[in-house]
Structures are given as C-alpha cells and as structure tokens.
Amino acid sequence: MKTMIEFTLNGKKVQTDAAPDTPLVWVIRDEFGLKGTKFGCGVAMCGVCTVHIDGNAIRSCSYPVSLAKGKDVNTIESLNNEHPLQSAWVEEQVPQCGYCQSGQIMQAATLLDKNPTPSDEDIVNHMNGNYCRCMAYTRIKKAIKRAATSSVQYFDPNATSEGENA
Amino acid sequence: MSIKDISREKKDTVNLSRRSFMVGSVKSSLLMAFGASLIPSVLSAKEALETKTFSPNVWFEMDTDGRVTVNIARAEMGQHVGTAIARILADELECDWNKVSIVHVDTDPKWGYMVTGGSWSIFQSYKPMSQAGAAGRQTLINAGAELLGVPPSACEANAGFVVSGSKKVSYGDIVANGNIDKTYTADELGAMPIKPGNKRHLIGLGNEYKALDIPPKTNGTAVYGIDVEVDNMLYARPILPPTRYGSKVTGVDDSEAKGLSGYKGYKVLTDPTGTIEGWVAVLATDYPTAIKAVDKVKVSYNTGKNANASEADIQREGERICRDRNEGTLFVDEGNIRDAQQQAANSIESLYTTATASHFQLEPLNAIAEFKDGKWHIHTGNQWQSLTLPAAAKAAEVPDSDVVIHQYYLGGGFGRRLFGDWVIPTLLTAKAVGQPVKMLFMRPDDTMFDQPRSASTSLFNAYFDGAGKFMGMEHALAAGWPTLAMAPGFMPDGIDGKGKVDPFSASGSDHWYTMEHHRARVVNNKVAQDTFTPGWLRSVGQGWIVWGLESFIDEIAHKTKQNPVDFRLAMLDGKGKQAGKAPESVGGAKRLANTLEILKKKTANVNLGENEGIGYSVTAGQERTMPAWLATAAHVHVDKNTGKITLKKLWVVADAGIIIHPDGAMAQMEGALLWGTSLALFEHNEIKDGYVAKKNLTTYQPLRMADVPDMNIEFIESDEFPVGLGEPGVIGVAPAVGNAVYQAVGVRMRHLPMLANDVKKALTA
Fold this sequence. Notes:
By secondary structure, chain A is of the alpha+beta class. Chain A has helices at 24-31, 84-91, 101-114, 120-127, 137-149; strands at residues 5-9, 12-16, 50-53, 56-59, 72-74.
C-alpha cells in the first residue's frame, strides 16, 4: 500500500505516491513536470534546485518529499514572470548559460522578502551558497540591488502589476 | 589537421566561402540560403529553395510582417551566440531588430561542420553573415525599387523599409508582393562589400542591446537537455568502473535492488567505439529509483591497470619528459637555442606546474536516446556535434546518416560538452533494452567521467650573455592531451617531424615576444593520458602554458633588473613574425604592447598597502591565427601569517577588434576573469587511485560570490576584424596574480592553484 503525500505546489493541492525519502526535486520535475527547478549537485551545495517551502529558500535535492506534507511549495514558475527580480535579471543581463538562475532568483526572493534594502554584505551572505559556474556574480548582485530599489519592494503575486520592474 | 584546418573545414561548409547564395520567394516567405556546393545552374534560386532538393541551408527567412528568423548552428551555452550572429546579419540586412528571432537547429549535414568552441563563433561568422545580410539587402532594395517605381540607385534600406525620398515600402510588403528569385555566385557573394566597422550601427562599442536568450533563462522556461522527456522512456544511471580505462565487468548481483518498486534491471554495456569500458547501466521507471538501485547493485570487475595512479605519478612523469630533450616534438624553434646555451654566461631554470582541474558545469551530463522511424534520435546539449555524431553512429553500428542530435540549451559547456562521450552509454543502454532511455549522471558520476584539465608541467630555461643581456629561452611543456584522446585527426606534425602536436596543448608557447633564440618542445604525458580523458577546459592549453610563460618572463625581467612591464614592452616590437597579418592579426605584437601601455598608465597611481603588490601579464587569446590582445593586472594582498592571497582587483585592457555584442563581450570577460581567478587560487582536483579525488562541491570549491574581486574591464575601440572572447580572459589572471604575490612579499609561486599553505611554506623557506 502506498501512502499519498499531499502538499500545495504553486497554489494548487497536489498528491504524490512517491517513496517518502524521494528528494522533492524529482517529484516537482518529473512527476509534476515543472522543469524550471534544476538539479545540480544532489547535496545542497550548489542551489540550482532552490524552491520556497512555507516561504523559506530550500534545496529541493536534499529535501525528502515526506517533509513537504501539508506545506506550501513554490517554484520559479509561481513567480509568473512578474517578480521584480525577474525583470531586474533581464535589465542587468544576468544569465549566461542560465542553468543556475531559477535557483538564484528563488534564493534572492527570500532575501528581499525579509530585507527590502540589503547591503552588499547582506547579499553576499544570503547568496554565497548559490553557485554560478559562468560566474555571473557581479551581475547577480547588481540585479538584486536593482530589484530592491525598484518601486515594487515586496512581491505579491495577487497584486496588479505596477512600477517599472513589475 | 590543425586548428587552422578545423577552421578551414568550417569555412568550406558553415562559413560557406565557396557557396552560392540564394534569395527567393517561397509560400509568402522570403528564404535566404547558402546553396549546397553543387547546385545545378538549371534551377533558379526560387526553385531550389522551394523544392529543397539540394537541401540548401536556410540561414534566415522573412515573412510578410517583415519578421526575420535566423537559424543558428552554434550551441548556446551562455555566450548569447545566436544574438550576436543575428545582429551581424541584421546590421547589413537593415531589417528591424525588434522583429528578429533565432532558432537553434538540430544536426543535419546541410549545416556543414558543427562545432562551438575555441572562441571561434564570431570570428568565423562575421564575414559570411555580413555578406549574406548585404546580399539580402541588395535584393530587397531591387524588389522594393520596382514596387515604388524608382530605380534601385534612388533607394536605400533603413530599419525594415526600402526608402526613396518620401516614398517607402516595408520589407514585409516586399515579401508579400514581390516575386524574388536571385542567385549570387560564390564569387559575387565574396565580392560583396561589407560595411567597415565605423559604419555599423547595430554592432560595435556603444551599441547596447539585450540578448534574445535571456528572458527564458529568468523564468524557468529555457529547455536544457535534462528537461527533455520522450514517450515510454526509462531512466538510467550508470555505474562507473574502478578505472577510466581497461576495467571489465566480471559479475553483477542485483538481488538487493529487485525489491525496489520501479527497478527495471541493469545492462552491462559493450562499446564498439572503446570509449567506455566496464560500464553497467541501471534502469528504472523513475530517476530516484535508479539512484537508489545503483547503491544496491554489486558489480565485480577485473580492474584496469591504472587503478593506483596518482597526481604525483603524473607530475613525476611530467618532469622526467620535460628534462629529457629526446622526448616530444618541437612546436617553435627560432634562432639557435643550442648556440645560446653554449655562449651563455648565465642561466636560470624554473619548473611550473598546475594541478588537475574539473569542469563542474552545473547541468550534469545527460542524454536521451530513442530509436524511431529507422533513426537514432539523441536529445542532448552538445558543443561538437560533428565529432559526437559519428561516434554515436559507430556505437549504434549504423551509418552517420541514421543519427540525429537534437540540440538544447547547455547548462554550462566550458569544453566539457565538446565531445559528447556520454551519448554513447545512453545509446548503448537504449539499444540493449529496446526502449528509449534517459541517462542522467549523478554529480559524482559526472565528475568521475569528466574530461578534466590535465595536470601540467612546464620547464623553462633562460640564457644570458656576459653583459647580463637576455639571449633566449628554452621551454618544454607536458600534459595529457585532449585532442590526442578525442580528435587525433586534428593534430599536425611537429616542426622537426618527430611526432604529432596537440595544438590545444601547445598554443601559447608560440608567444608574440621577439626573442633571438626560442625553442618550445611539447610532450604528451602518457601517465595522464592512460589514466583519464584529458579535456578541453575553458582557455585550454593557454590556461596553464601562459601561466608558466608569463610568470617566467617576470623572473627574467627581475634577473636582468628590469621593470617587468617595460621588459615586456621592449620585446613586443612587432618585428618579423610578430608583425601580424590581415585580417585577423593586423598590427601584431604592437597591438598587444598598446594594451599594456594603456594598462600601465591606468594602474600607475594605485596605492599599495603593506604586503600588497600589482602584477602584470600579456596574453593573446587562443591561437596565433585569432589573437585577442589582452593586458591584465592583479592587485593582491598576502597575509604573511596564513599565506592567504586576497585578490583585491583585476584590470584588463582588451583589443579584440570590433566588439559585436558589447554587453555580451563584457559578460564573457567578467566570467572568464573569475574563471581565471578560480583556477589561480581555488580549483584543484588531484588524481588519486585512478580518478579525481573530489567528486562533489563539498570538497571541490571554486570561487563563489564572496571571493569576487573588483574588476575594471576596458575594450579598445577598434574597427579591426573581430576575434573570439569566450576564453581569453581566463589566461592572464594566474600569472598576474603570481607576479603580484612576488611583488608583495618576494616569493615566487610556481604551482597552481596558489594555496595559502604553499604560500606560507614559501614565505618561511
């Protein structure tokens, strides 16, 4: 008998019969088909698999799906291309290969949630665990600052678009 | 073949220098294509394009709204290559940039030779794309003039319109109404004038525009190889043998795995190409089960002979073959180094080494292989399809024409995705199980199957006359050779005829300094070669060769009591073979000297604190036939207690000809400088027991955000022929840092990376 694990994924209730120890990343990607979340190192050291769980940035490659039970899981797709970080990423031309960028944006989003005006040091402390092999680090930093100083400081997915970066 | 030959092969196909060019209306579109080499003259452009009988490669098409789609045969791995190529075209075509889009194409012989590497893309695309754009514009002007009822000479093209005084017609309307049928012969196309750099309005410094591939890379919609699925596929994870080469599977026990729901058994792989030996693939209906199953399947082996190989073995062999003048073959031989040795009153010798380094591209290796409608379809991101495809065909035991590689975004290339060796176990597994297979490497699998940058050894001797004047230099350099391992057909003979040369493990020793006597002897390190597959890693041989060279140049300058910058400038006189040639290296060493002069001025008034120094280097890109002229300076601080080097700032002055995509070039330079920093100070993956010792990012620790130095990057305004910029920025950082450390605290570091412990040891020696 398989037990079903239920959680909320990008605002929708979902159920999976994956083994309880299955890393959440595979459930998101292969069972629910949301490929924006990437897989990189499998040991929570690179951050390309970062998603939000109850508002915290979590490495989904090292997070058993059973722990997600009853929780709110949000992926890059949940931002709907409306998050100020996403437009800042385009304005600053951040991505090169782009593979880490979903994770970078999800990681950065939790920084701005808690600290709308981060200093350079705040940014480095918050982002240092997210690896970018193209080493687009200076642009990541710039884009976070741009998003932080834009008219939209808090992301509200239900709000109507406003501001230059919305 | 040499690097030049690879380029030439490309020129004959992708670069199309001997092909006709056709522009024709087909089904309410305007197609523009390079003809196959033997288009019979009986077919008009329109007929040929309509029937596609001769498989013309449609490079771009325009619809009745004036929208232009450009087909791109180059891999996108972060360099925004499609944008830059489309921009070159649009500049000449005079179409509306807001209506341009790009498509990355799958393998098909019609595209010609497909490789994305060597920083070649812009260099090789610039002229043919410019001429194709100019031919398209001319054709549209002629057709537009007819619609306007004026002579073509009274018209000009501007942002998607043909304009004659107050009258104008849009490109879209010309496509809708025109009946265009025009062929340019190869000679006509070749004679098509292209705008000089200073008449360009879409490319060059000051033209800021955004890359077309970036928006999908900010919202999760960009599709990488790992994101692809096909119907009815199984997931596979490989079990790697105890050695890269020579191991054989003697038994497999999967009794423990059988209890896993979703486990679908295993396959012992037999590879007709010999690329993999002793591999087992574990199959499952989902990937997490495949991950688990690998831990439960027990494989026994006859282990290959290099099971105990170590980094020290490789370095020992490297030093031995550098010191033995009978080993290897000559790559450079100017003047007479033997005479210089005999006449010398003095000499200095230094041995420079670098550790094995890994790619760690963030998307782990993966592919899908599916046999469908009589062909093998491979889904993967790949840089060198024309090398990978024949190997895949050989593994499948089918003709090349029965394999198609479908291209996706690459989650990092950096040279690891040139030869797509991971396609082979994927295809063999799919063939064995008779079902489509998606093989994905877990990170340790990926790292063990990496093609790392080989450990390297460089021995330098410099000779001085009785007055202390520098006479010349002997340079011996050894490493595992990627081209020998993966594309041996591309190796030219050494100049003494004693053997073959891997140009990617030699270029850089043929520097742009004028030296009366200069010999460079290249040697393959067989211990490295037999232990792993040496790889092309961003900036390839230049990354380790020029580290030694530019550090040793500083040593020579200090020995002769000269300022290292002035010593370099004096040797960059642009005389003889260093004069350069048109179009790619016009100005030669003088342009390199110019970058260094500018850099010298820029850094003249930097305040240096205690235990701080500035070091310099000059580098000239990936090869003499495509030099990117760069002067690099590094400002470091050395902690004398711990030995820790802090790189505070990097400056680069770069002359790369006309800069096609200024912001893209800047991004490449920023990334390349940080790669150079990471390889100089952080990255090393020593061989231990036959494999790289560090299998994941828990122990392999490249530069992260906290380690980023300030960077000051300047591109010189130039109308010269554009050269590649993806790799060159890497090269100069390590020697500039090493030279700065010497200036700061007086110790000469001769091994990469320069780790705190080694600096500390040197300080207390």
